[in-house]
Amino acid sequence: MLHSLWLVLASCLLVAYCAKRRDDNETLFLSLLELGVKEDDAARMAQEPCQSKGFFCDEEEIVGLVMTGWKLGGRIPKGLRHLSRLEGIFLERNHLQGGIPAELSELMFLRFLILSENQLSGAIPTELQALKNLRKLDLFKNQLTGPIPPELGTLSELQVCMLSENQLTGTIPKEFCQLHGLHTLDLSQNPLSGEIPKELGKLEAMERLYISGTHISGPIPRELSQMHSLIYLFLPDNDLEGPMPGELGRLQLLQELHLSQNRLSGAIPKELGQMETLQKLELSANQLEGEIPKELGQLKSLRMLSLAQNRLQGRIPQELEQLRFLQELILSKNELQGSSEEIASILQSMRLEVLDLGHNSFAGELNEWRAEVVQELQLLDLSHNKFFGNLSRFVEIFCSLSPPGGSLLELRLNHNRFTGEMPPCLMQFSNLNFLALNNNRLRGSLPPIHASELVVLALHKNKLSGVLPESLHHLKRLGVLTLHENSIGGPISGLNLSTACMDNSKFRIEGMGCVRLRALVEEKGLKLHHIDPHDPVHQLKQIYANCPTLMGCDRAGTANLTLHRNRFSCAVPKSLGSSKISGLVIMGNMLGSGRELNFSWIRPEEKQSFLYYSKEVWTSNQVVIAGFVLLFFFGALCYQPRQRLEASSPHLNFGTGARVASANLGVLKSARITTLLALPLLLLFWASGNYYECSPLLWQSTAANSSVEPLAGLGVISCWCTMLFLFRTLFASMPMRQKERQRRSTRHGCVWRIRRLLAWGCWVCIVTALSLPSILFSCAQSLPGNGHRDTSGSDFMFKLVYHATPLLIVVIDVVLAAKLSTKYCDFSGIKADRLLMTFRLFAAWLLPLLITVVLDENCLSVWKMTWSVCQPGSPEHKYFDWNIYEEEILDTDRDICTLSQSWWSDGRCSRAIVGNLTSLLLQKLLVRSTLYPLALWLTWQGSRLEEAGTECHSGRHLKLFGFNTTNALAPLQQMSFLTTQFELLAFWTPLVPLLSFGVLGVASANLLILDLALWSFRIQLPSNEVNQLAALSRSYLSFAHSAGCCFQLWHAFGSQMYGRYILLIFSIAVMNPWATRFLPLKAARRYFWAEVEKASQTEFIEMAVQMDEPAGSVHF
């Protein structure tokens, strides 16, 4: 009976056990499903949990739930409370959502709650205070919100509390001071506020305190110095302020102190020198002042010292040379100073890997450094200082290492005053990937570049010349190349850029750079290439932005290229590598081959037809060439009539015609002599002009493409000096009328001068309005179409005016200029020939010159004020703001839109003026020497000679439909016209030798017209007072000659031409008033002006500035 009773009892217990086991399995199955485990796997695991992966058991009881990195996407089940013996929950690196169940507080044996790197939300349950055995609470990297529960301060066994990278708010609970066993507390990357509770100083077991990336403010509590076990103190990227407490020096076990990116002020406490075990001291990006304490030299174990981005002054303490284990010394962006010798003395006992002294005021020559100091350097930044001297002497230290350059990865010497040429061995450093030498004074050509690991090469804003080395094509990793604002020329076809990919060597996060992070990734097997760039976590964003090699460089961006404001020319390649190019290459160069640029790698903002050698420029050159062919043809036809008129002009006896013909003959003789002198100059420009290797044909024949080679420069200067002497003699030998000499001594009152000045001002306004074609011509050569002229209609109008301007200038000159000058003479009292010369000066080249100076890219660049790139707020404005991490490469406002300070002294503006105006001047002369005589002859064929009148002084003219068709031969027009031709010879022929041929053709054609009019058509030139007083103006021509001399000097000194000082001395000697005593004036008068004196014995060549006021005119 008793046996049966025991049997029944055992059966009941077995049934109860099986029922409980079945319930537990069902509960576990549902919990696994809620976690996100697949149904089949959940059923198998729930049936035999202790035999399944994911559970740890002790005597058939589940004590551990370990599902790290299972990619679970469910929720934390409340049913876990039934696992009453559970000691550890490890669910990190999953995709769990929802909140943390308060029911977990029923797990009384729980010691480890690890839920990091999930997507948990909601508040941290206050019920967790019931977990009295909890030792580690890890909720890192979730989306938890709300305040940190003060109740966590009752977890007396808690040793590790990781709450970083959430969205927790509120203050740090002071109740944490009760956690006497807590040795690690991480609250970083949360929007916490308030101050650091001073009560935390009671946590004597604390070893690691991390509070970074929060809104914590206020001072650093002095009580933290009571944490005698503290090893790591991380408080960066907060709003901490006030002075650093000197009591921190009592932390004798501290190894790393990170207080960067706060608002700490005052001096660095000298007590920090007492921390003998300190290895890393990071105080950068604060507002610390004063000098660097010499006591820091007592930190014998220090490996990294970062005091960058503060307001420190003074010199680097000599005591720092005692830091023999120091690997990183970062003192950039302060106000430190000292000599290179002092720096070398301090560094002599160190074996640094990182030396960053950029953005300070250090100075001197870098000649005292030793190879032992630099042999382990990986980063050397001496940028933005005042170092000077020959760069080669300093680089020799690295060249002596094996391999060349040693371990150097980055060399930043930009924004200093280094001189000399680029050292060839520098471009052979085997490990170098970042080289910045921009904003120095380096000269010479680029040497062959064999640094195969080079990613960034910044050489802009130097004085480099030559061409791009072919070795650039073999740099497979090169992704950033900046060469703007140098004098490098030739084609750009040898480039092969790839996607820029390199880490930011200055990046530090919790004291770790990209190299240390890479080692950490490899050590823990992390997969950072799965990082989402839009991840809200601040630290991951920083890693993504600064360490692209950790993600395999698949998101590193595009290649950057800047070549503007150089001497690059020739055809533009279709591509520059396999990567997408972000560049600025057209402006300030002569790229192109006479075709449109439709390549995708060129930015639309630069595809402006007049910023490069475009189809319009090519067409303009062809027109000029065709015009010269036509000119030579006409010259052959007109040779005999011109010879006859030359021979007979001294003996003409029909009044003013003799004087006009004689003056024309003087121009013709001058043009012949000038042409002979211009021939060697033209050959020099064509043969040795290499400023642009592939410039338009007309540019090659002008000073715009003049060489900077010694022999070519001396040859040009010699020709210029000869021409200077010729024109000084020619104009000084012009005879003056006695009446004009008497009038030069006439004095006028102040009122008369003011009225005359106002009259001239009104005339300038009138002339400017009538010179609109010339203005539009220059605008068309200096304004980009897409960025400035929005409609295709206006762009077409600009192109039409551009090609028609020379013809329009001649038409306005012939039809309106003389009549308007005569009318204004009657009104103002200013002599008509002076008004007419001013009109022609403005229309011919003065206004185009001024417009070019104002608008052209190489001069004042005023057109950029309306360019979309230079308009703040436009999408294009920020496109050219380029930075390579912390190093600024290109700034839209400073480097593109702001006027270059050297625009007037680097020769670019003078070259642009000569190059842009050459086509206009030559086309105008060709029209005047070919089309105009032909049109005039055809008009005369249909005209009738008017009957002889009683007023012989008005002359006898040909008329067509009542219009005078021979008015252009009047002495008023002829003398001002011939003065303008003299002016072109004196001012422009030294710069554009082809102009002498054009003037020669114009003078010959003008003689032919006189021959036809006087001999064939029997007209009589008017001899009234206005025409009788018209004459060549010696003062006007002397002034034009002086202006041309100044322009030549400006160009010579701006272009650094050899012999420029010879030209200066010669100009001073020849142009001074006393030089006339030594000039061959008698010989010049006999050769150039004898016919003029014979043709008019009582009339002398007079100055056009001060002429007699006509009777009845208004006296100003």
What is the helical fraction, as a range of percent?
A: 25-40%
The total strand number stands at 43
Q: Which regions are unreliable across 5 or more consecutive residues at pLDDT < 50?
A: 527-537, 649-654, 738-742, 786-793, 1097-1116
Number of alpha- plus pi-helical segments: 26
Mean pLDDT: 84
Q: Report the radius of gyration as a whole number of Å.
A: 44 Å
Largest sheet: 21 strands, mixed
| Strand content range | 5-15%
What gross morphology would you assign?
Answer: elongated
Termini separation comes to 152 Å
Please identify the structural class as seen in this structure: alpha/beta
Pfam family, one: LRR_14
Keywords: ATP-binding, Leucine-rich repeat, Membrane, Nucleotide-binding, Repeat, Signal, Transmembrane, Transmembrane helix
InterPro entries: Leu-rich_rpt (IPR001611), Leu-rich_rpt_typical-subtyp (IPR003591), LRR_dom_sf (IPR032675), LRR_R13L4/SHOC2-like (IPR055414), Plant_LRR-RLKs (IPR050647)
Subcellular location: Membrane
Question: What does this molecule look like?
Answer:
- It is a single chain.
- The chain is of the alpha/beta class and 1116 residues long.
- Helix content is 37%, strand content 13%.
- The chain contains 26 helices and 43 strands.
- The strands form 7 sheets. The chain has a 21-stranded mixed sheet, with no helix packed on it.
- The protein is elongated, with a radius of gyration of 44 Å.
- The N and C termini lie far apart (152 Å).
- Mean pLDDT is 84; it is low at 527-537, 649-654, 738-742, 786-793 and 1097-1116.
